[in-house]
Design goal:
alpha/beta, Rossmann fold, seven-stranded mixed β-sheet, six-stranded mixed β-sheet, 23% strand
Length: 454
């Protein structure tokens, strides 16, 4: 039996990979971490993989291990990592291991600053309905899929969400540089992760490099409405075959978005131009995998979205509440624009949290200029303690107001923000929460139902 050990098993991607491997009968999985939060903790416990104690234990590392998988959360002086190097064990990063397990398969990789999770989820949703049963890695829960990572011997296709963040403490390459796809998608480029890509030019260069790492005669599906992708695709390798896409024709009627196709108008359960672009990218991928457009449209109309991506969490006759993973300026603009278009006659209350390293960096704040201007009421929350914890330059609420512009309200207390939201009447309204966090512990589903009186 093969034994695999995870250093930093509690990570969002790492714990999913650990669960996927543990389901193989010939593998035994162990792991360590110094902090494990929800939902990783519950999911690891459910699958019998939660470490008995938090911390690092070099005694778990021995010569009998087939592999050690190193998470980004670990540091270079991690005692388990040092022991593994001392013993000469094979040490993989998360993306390295995925690549090694799928070398003989047709790899589809979806990259981009935004939309990659939803586009990957759409592809998997269609493939699953068609009985393809692919291997995969996706960054959110999807209807019909128990796990967020799957590896098997049977499948001939692997579909990965291609994250541009760094691979591991030992490997400073972006994760998606290690997958070498046969079919690649690039949804668009908007500056993010400034802690590792200090200039926009440096950030764009990572996507250019990604196109250079496609397999020979690879297919590149890209958003032709993105100026940066237009520039990149002008100097591609001659063997690559490109498929540009743009926002397809659509109409909105009585709160439902209809996609205009050669087979007639297709009613969708998702909305927003960014989601329509994601559908186009997914359609082109599925076509490359042998799925006709007619079949694709029959299936995609039932796609409800990926978890936390414009997900409806509460509703009455007079108010709908959504939560979205949006945190970067481009994502905020796209999400607010989508909700405004879907509910043109309703009051839009938009609430966002500055939570990521980039969003909490004082020099980055001006990137948010006017990104919430289409909301009728706009709230921004951040926790100064998180700024200090990340060792970032402090800023005040006035700096945030000036950066965003418009009539926004800024809060540094989650309780004060909740109190302000409770004072609003939600007749004929739509409420939108946007964050990669949880506003310091708010259960958004319960809070939303309290606000709208469900």
């Amino acid at each position: 039996m093969k034994r695999v050990h995870f250093i930093a098993i509690g990570g969002a991607a790492m714990h999913n990979l650990a669960i996927a491997i543990s389901k193989k009968q010939w593998y035994k999985v162990s792991g360590s971490d110094d902090e494990i939060f929800e939902p990783s903790r519950s999911r690891l416990e459910k699958n019998g993989l939660l470490p008995e104690k938090l911390g690092w234990f070099p005694e778990k590392i021995d010569a009998g291990l087939s592999a050690v998988i190193l998470g980004m959360h670990a540091t270079l002086d991690n005692p388990e990592l040092l022991k593994a190097k001392e013993l000469g064990l094979k040490i993989y990063s998360f993306p390295e291991y995925l690549y090694e397990q799928t070398r003989s398969k047709t790899r589809v990789v979806v990259g981009g600053s935004h939309g990659k999770t939803t586009t990957t989820a759409m592809i998997l949703f269609v493939l699953n309905k068609m009985g393809f049963n692919p291997d995969y890695m996706v960054g959110a829960q999807i209807d019909g899929f128990e796990d967020m990572v799957k590896l098997s011997l049977e499948s001939h296709i692997a579909v990965f969400e291609g994250d541009e963040y760094l691979t591991s403490p030992l490997d400073r390459r972006p994760k998606f540089h290690l997958y070498h796809p046969h079919i690649a998608v690039l949804t668009g480029i908007a500056w993010d992760h400034i802690n590792v890509f200090p200039t926009f030019e440096n950030y764009v260069e990572q996507f250019k490099k990604f196109t250079e790492l496609l397999e020979p005669q690879g297919r590149l599906i890209y958003n032709s409405q993105d100026e940066n992708l237009q520039k990149i695709t002008r100097s591609l390798r001659s063997d690559l075959i490109t498929f540009p896409y743009k926002t397809p024709d659509y109409r909105i009627e009585k709160g439902i978005t209809y996609l205009k196709t050669a087979q007639g108008d297709v009613p969708l359960k998702v909305f927003g131009e960014h989601n329509l672009q994601n559908i186009e990218a997914a359609r082109l991928v599925c076509r490359q995998l042998g799925i006709f457009d007619t079949k694709f449209y029959q299936i995609i109309k039932d796609f409800k979205g990926a978890a936390n991506r414009l997900q409806k969490i509460a509703e009455t006759l007079y108010c709908a509440v959504y939560k979205d993973f949006a945190h970067s300026p481009s994502k905020l603009r796209a999400t607010i624009k989508a909700v405004r278009a879907q509910y043109p006659d309703r009051k839009l209350v938009a609430v966002m949290e500055l939570h990521t390293f980039s969003s909490l960096t004082a020099d980055f704040l001006p990137q948010y200029k006017d990104c919430m201007k289409d909301a009728d009421l706009a709230f921004v929350y951040y926790n100064p303690e998180i700024v200090a914890h990340k060792h970032l330059q402090e800023f005040d609420t006035e700096s945030v107001k000036n950066a965003f512009g418009g009539n926004i309200q800024v809060f540094t207390s989650s309780q004060a923000m909740q109190t302000a939201l409770k004072k609003i009447r939600y007749d004929n309204s739509v409420l939108l929460f946007m964050s990669s966090g949880n506003f310091d512990g708010i259960n958004l589903e319960e809070f939303s139902e309290e606000l709208i009186g469900k």
